[in-house]
Structures are given as structure tokens and as C-alpha cells.
Amino acid sequence: MLPASAADALERGRALAQRVDNRPDGDDAASQGTMVLSEAGREPRVRKLYSFRREGAGGEVANLIRFTAPADIADTGLLTIDHADGSTDQWIYLPALKRDRRIPSSRRGGRFVGSDLFYEDLQDRDVDEDRHRWLREETLEGVKTEVLESVPIDPDSSVYGRRLSWIHPETLIPMRVDFYRPGEPRPFKRLRVYKVERIQGYWTVTDSVMKDLESQHQTRVVNEQTVYDRNLPERLFTNRALQDPSLEQRFRP
């Protein structure tokens, strides 16, 4: 049996993880943004994109990302369906191939369009897939946050051995997340949230950076416009819509 302090840390950790998961974020959302890929010695690569999210009545969450510029990535899209049972289906559409391609679970650690975001980072992870432990309170840029450790219960379910998250107490948004490879003592990747805004009553991340701590390559995502609760249709989150950008253009903010 766990000592009382250890048991309390697990109970408190899971409760915090559940509050983060339950954070209000609307029934659906449509966003316009910019992705900037940067590394030493090279000019930043700037990409324009739209993203859409819809929560189904049964607990399913669907996401569609579409790039519009520059020309070499325009119309490339990613469709992610997170099912209520915790499983995920992902497909990427590459215009040069004129078809979509399923992303197997073995590639969840692959870099999405050469960015520092893994395919796994673009999936919703169920709270009960991890063992959560509350570690401490820690001040981050003047804000007292709660540090949460999350370790996969099934090591094969994630490319990460563990994650440490610094949770903002009011917004319940992780302001920093450190990602660790299995068995390694130091993080190899870090997410930092630099700006959060309240839009239509929902706390929204509008500026964040995912950084590879080894290569120093980083991906900045700036959310320039978001509109919530537009009653986005289910047909927007289908393979047909993934392959045909014209089907989602009318829903762009």
C-alpha cells in the first residue's frame, strides 16, 4: 500500500488532470493561424493554416488542419478523430499524391510536416491512459502554477516516457510541458505557452512554441483568429472533406 503522502499526490494529480481535461473550450471552434519553423543558420519558414475542431455528442473529438501557404504545402491537411474509447484515427492528405494516407500508431512519434509537433501531440489523450502525480507548486513567470507528472500506464501507448506540466490555476492551461523519452532523466522537447486570451468566454492559447531541446529547432504557432460554437457540421470532419479543401472554405473564420 502507498504511503499516505504518495497516495495523496496521486489522488490530487488525477483530480488536477481531470480538471484540465474538463476545461470549457466550446462545442466547436474554427481558427486561423501561422506556423513558423526556425533553426540556427536558416531563414524561418512561415506557413499559413486553418484548423477546425468539433466535439461529438458521444464524446468523440474531431480535428482538421489545413495549410494554405506557401505553395509547396498548400492544401496539405490532417484529420484526427479521437474516439470516446481512447483510440485515435489519423489521416494526412498530400496534394502531390492526390489522396489521403492513414497514419499508423507506430508513427505517432513522427514529425508533422517537418515541425516539432509529433502526430501524438495533435491527439487528445484520455486522462485514464496516464498515471498522474501532483509534484509541487512552482512560480513560472510570476504565476504560481501546479506541476503535474503524467506517465503512460501502457508504455506502448505513447512515444513519451513521461510529461511534466506547469498548470495555470485560473485558466487550467499548461503553460509549460516538458517531454521525456522513456528512461531518460532530461527532457528532449518543451512546449511553452506565451499568450492566452479569453475569446467568447473561453481561455484560448494564441501564441506557443514547441522546441527541440537537442537541436534547438522550434515551431511557433500563432493563433490569429478563433470563432467558437458555430455549429460546424460532422461532414467537415470526413476523409472527403480532407481531400477537398473547397468543402471547408466556407467555414473558415
Short description:
The protein is mainly β. The chain has a single domain (4-251), classed as Lipoprotein localisation LolA/LolB/LppX (outer membrane lipoprotein receptor (LolB), chain A, Clam), CATH 2.50.20.
Main traits of this protein?
single chain, 253 residues, mainly beta, outer membrane lipoprotein receptor (LolB), chain A, 13-stranded antiparallel β-sheet, 2 helices
Task: Describe the protein in words.
The protein is mainly beta. The protein has one domain (4-251): Clam (outer membrane lipoprotein receptor (LolB), chain A), CATH 2.50.20. The protein has two helices and 13 strands; from the N terminus they run H-E-E-E-E-E-E-E-E-E-E-E-E-E-H. It is globular.
Under CATH at level 1, the class stands as Mainly Beta
CATH topology: outer membrane lipoprotein receptor (LolB), chain A
What count of structural domains? 1
What is the approximate shape? Answer: globular
CATH superfamily: Lipoprotein localisation LolA/LolB/LppX
Count helical runs. 2
Unreliable stretches? none
Q: Mean of the pLDDT scores? A: 95
Q: Write the H/E string, N to C.
A: HEEEEEEEEEEEEEH
User: Biggest β-sheet: count, sense, barrel?
Assistant: 13 strands, antiparallel
Strand content: over 45%
SS class: mainly beta
Radius of gyration in whole Å, from Cα? 18 Å
CATH architecture: Clam
User: What is the straight-line distance between the termini?
Assistant: 53 Å
Extended strand count: 13
Helix content: under 10%
Strand neighbour order, sheet with most strands: 6-5-4-3-2-1-13-12-11-10-9-8-7
